[in-house]
Amino acid sequence: MSNFTKPNIVVIAAHPDDEVLGVGGTIQKHIREGHSVTVIYVTDGFYDDADDDRVSSKRKNATDAMNMLGVTKIIFLGFKGLRLDTYEKCSLNAELTNKFKEIKPKIVYTHHWGDVNFDHQIVFDMTLVACRPHRGVQIEALFTYETLSSTEWAAPNRDSSFLPNVFEILDEEMVNLKAAALEQYVTEIFDYPHPRSSKGIKILAQQRGLMISEEYAEAFHLVRSVNN
After folding, report:
1. How many helices (H) and strands (E) does the chain have?
2. With bands split at pLDDT 50, 70 and 90, how would you rate the model's confidence at 6?
3. Residue 8 · residue 35 · CB < 8 Å
4. What pLDDT, on the 0 to 100 scale, is given for residue 136?
5. At 208, which CATH number?
6. Sign of the CA dihedral with 115 first, then 121, 127, and 132 last
7. 1 assigned to some structural domain
8. Parent domain of 57
9. Going by DSSP bridges, is the β-strand pair 166-170/8-13 parallel, antiparallel, or unpaired?
10. φ and ψ at 43, to 5 degrees?
C-alpha cells in the first residue's frame, strides 16, 4: 500500500457485505494512513423486490459496518441484486463512471472476474470501463478481491481462478474488527463451517498469512498498476 501515495480509494461491492469480506482489513489500513475511502454499493443485495423498510435496514447494516471500520463515505447505486444482467450495460457503466468522475479515485478494489456470482462478474466489467485510462482518468492501481462463498466456489479454471499476487499484512485486531463488521449484516452471516462466518473470515486471513509467512493477511490480484 505504501507505494501508492495519493489517498482517494474506492471499494466497489456488488452487495452489502462483499466489501467487508474482501477488503475489511485493508480498508482499516487505508483509514489509519489518512486515506479517503469511499465504498460504492451497486445493489442492495435483495433477490426479490424489497420494500423500503428492508432496503433501509440493509443500508443501515452497511453504514454500521463501515462506521466500525472508519468509513464515512458511502454511495448506494440502488440497482436490483442478482439482476444486474437485466440492465443495459451502458446504463450500468455510465452510473459508475459518473461516480468516478466525482470521486477521482487513484486506488480501486473490485470483485474478481471469475466469481460464481454473476453480479460480481458484471461489477468487475463495470469497473474496467470506469477505470479506462483516458479523458483525464488515471488509476494508479486496480485490484480484485476475493469474496467468501463466491470466489472459492467458482469452477477451477486457470483463466478465471483467483490468483493472488498482492498481500496486505493484517494484525489480530484488524481481523477481529473485520469479523465484527460482518456481524452487522444480520441476514448475511452464517454459522461456521459456512465460509461467510466470523470464524471463516479468521481462517481465510490465516491461510493468506501463511502464504507470505505472516500470521494474517488479505489477498488481492493486481490487474493494472501505473507508477508516476
Report:
1. 6, 7
2. low
3. yes
4. 78
5. 3.40.50.10320
6. positive
7. no
8. 8-222
9. unpaired
10. -125, 170
Residue-wise pLDDT for 153-175, tens only, equals 999 998 999 999 999 999 999 99
pTM: 0.95
Q: Which residue has the cell 444480520?
A: 186
Cell of 113: 472476474
| Nine-digit cell string for 191 | 454459522
Say if 185 falls within a structural domain. Answer: yes
- State how many domains the chain has: 1
Given a contact cutoff of 8 angstroms between Cβ atoms, the answer to whether 124 and 111 are in contact is yes
Q: Which residues pair with 218 in a beta bridge?
A: 168
Query: How many CA atoms lie within 13 Å of 25's alpha carbon, on the beta-carbon side?
Result: 27
Residue (of 62, 27, 64) closest to 174 by Cα position: 27
**Nearest-angstrom CA–CA distance, 219 and 169:** 9
Let me know: does 38 contact 11? Beta carbons within 8 Å. Answer: yes
**Does the residue 111 lie in any domain?**
yes
- Residue 2 included in any domain: no
Taking 90 as the threshold, does the pLDDT of residue 198 lie above it?
yes
Residue 27 sits at the vertex; the CA angle it makes with 141 and 117, to the nearest 5 degrees, is 75
